[in-house]
Amino acid sequence: MADPVDRSPAEHFYFLAWEYAEAAKMVAPNPQLRTVAFYLVCHSIELSLKAFLRAKGWAMGDLSDREQFGHNLDNALRQAEQAGLDEFFQTHKDFRDFLRVFHISYENKHYEYPLVFEPLDSLRSQRVLTVLLDGAESLLAQTKRSVLRTEN
User: Cα–Cα distance between 93 and 70 in angstroms, integer?
Assistant: First the structure.
């Protein structure tokens, strides 16, 4: 009998990614909630990329394996591109650059656990957040058809 977790369809990832993106849009205008907004948008991007990979046949065990995949957004983007993401989603250079910078803080859970010193704090501007939010929304919109038509 297959592991029930391994039967999680791509759609579940996709709809959860959409919820995180919507929540990020709600809190993004408030500068006092900037850290939360960055976490929400990064989590949305992670789930969107995993939805795409799941739709392409990746096993749940591979998507959740910390050694192979983890929460590394840069790696997730590269894996998704190798799986054909660029057929559906054209990555904006700023989005890719910011994702490469912020995946470190996200992967290391800097948005979930307080640190005495956050070296990337000066980069967490509204402009960067807007680029990431726009990228997350575009990723969801452009991969929707590919992800939601699967039976995984």
Answer: 23
pLDDT tens-digit map of 74-128: 888 989 999 999 888 887 888 888 888 877 778 777 777 766 545 555 566 888 8
Specify the amino acid at residue 125: S
This prediction has a pTM of: 0.85
Give the whole-angstrom CA distance, residue 48 versus residue 32. 26
| Domains along the chain with CATH numbers | 4-148 (1.20.120.330)
Distance between CA atoms of residues 144 and 48, nearest Å: 9
- 80 to 16, 26, 53, 74, 128: CA distances (angstroms): 18, 27, 6, 10, 22
